[in-house]
Amino acid sequence: MALAIMCSGGDAPGMNPAIKKFVDYVYKKREKPYLIYDGLEGLIDNKIKEATHKDVAGIMHNGGTIIRSSRSKRFFEYAFRQQAYENLKYHGITGLIVLGGDGSFRAMEKFSSEFDLNFIGIPSTIDNDIYGTEYCLGVDTALNVIRDALDKIRDTASSFNRAFLVEVMGRDCGYLAIISAIIGGAEICVIPETPFQPEKLTQRLQEEIKEGRNYILAIVAEGTKKTTEIHNWMEESFGLETRVSILGHIQRGGNPTVYDRMMAFEFTITAIDYLLSHHHSNKVVVFQKGAFNLIDIDEVVSNKYQLPQHYLDAINYLD
Ligand code: F6P
Fold this sequence. Notes:
Blueprint: E1 2-7, H1 15-28, E2 32-36, H2 39-44, E3 48-50, H3 78-90, E4 93-100, H4 102-114, E5 118-123, H5 139-160, E6 162-168, H6 175-184, E7 188-190, H7 198-210, E8 216-221, H8 227-238, E9 241-246, H9 258-276, E10 282-288, E11 291-296, H10 297-301, H11 309-314
Helix pairs in contact: 1-9, 5-6
The structure holds 6-O-phosphono-beta-D-fructofuranose (F6P).
Residues 10, 101, 125-127, 169-171, 222, 252 line the site of 6-O-phosphono-beta-D-fructofuranose.
């Protein structure tokens, strides 16, 4: 049997360990592994190559993805999806693993409903916003990048009587923001899932400043689109010079952490075992309550990820 792996959408640390395990484990199972380069764009353009162990040697510790990724506009058109399917057939590929996020899974749901595919998705996005799974590949590494940045920003903030607003990624999801706020000791966290209600916070922090607090750290999720508004509110309310730091794409880079390498291992083995024992799967591997399960891709894409209530509640316990 020939199985292929590809990445789609935003890259995430942990993709390389998953690609390496894919090639090594498919060979171990005495099947043929293929790599699809450049994501869905590469699938359309037939950038597909049988993999060797050498292709994936020495990549375990690298962030990003050696087979690259893309966001494909062409894949929205049926003719290009058909072309993509013909390319898979040409190589005799019967099973496909896609490392991707929500948008990629939507595309794959369409693709696998139109063509005879044996498909499994592995949730891979630093946003941690995919329905049905508590964890997506790359999140732990991104959180460690943010933690490192916050620790450094706190050093300078506390030395200077300054407030800092740090904007973190996450698309429309506040997961990265709330976890970073908890572990970074931030006083303020604003996420898209809850309304921003500054009244109580203003009063409490003003009192603390009177009692000697000399800096404030705020985490704002990019999905709120409120960075400027919150910056202005902080400057006007606290009498502290306030600097904005937008962390941006550094959050997507960096060597995958131990946790992301382990999760890559488990997600990939589960996906391959499932593909090899089924002929027409249309599933996503999910991590729930410490176990790896498979759920239908249409369930994943037709539901929205909800931040667990205890994280939403945590916003009120920061200061
Ligand atoms: O989905 C991952 C992510 O990094 C989001 O957090 C962010 O909003 C988006 O991708 C950025 O996309 P791009 O790399 O295309 O600018």
